[in-house]
Amino acid sequence: xxxxxxxxxxxxxxxxxxxxxxxxxxxxxxxxxxxxxxxxxxxxxxxxxxxxxxxxxxxxxxxxxxxxxxxxxxxxxxxxxxxxxxxxxxxxxxxxxxxxxxxxxxxxxxxxxxxxxxxxxxxxxxxxx
Length: 129
Known about the structure:
There is one protein chain. This protein has one helix spanning 76-89, and strands spanning 2-3, 25-26, 36-39, 42-45, 54-57, 60-64. β4 and β5 form a beta hairpin. The two termini are 46 Å apart. The longest helix has 14 residues, at 76-89. It has one helix and six strands, in the order ββββββα. By secondary structure, it is of the alpha+beta class. The strands form three sheets. The protein has a two-stranded antiparallel ribbon. Strands 3-6 form a two-stranded antiparallel ribbon. Strands 4-5 form a two-stranded antiparallel sheet.
């Protein structure tokens, strides 16, 4: 890795990025870098991102993929397909107990109107040798 400190003059030729997305560090030779599996909350799209505008919200490295190299890592075409599939199939309704037309809690909801206070429990830890 090379520290470029978001300096546009130090961006290597192989890296295509906008001025707002210049990283602090870059790979000296990306073909020699490990492939990382990345997980995140969802895909988003904004023109500032260079991978066809696709980005991953709240990305986390899940694991190093020793079975892959730069040639077998996810391509832009595959990323575009993953983005498309995620937008077609994601139907997350966080408020599943709220009626979409009335904005009220459904009759099936057995929870109380106010949150229940949690009881504090004292736990005693005993060292066993």
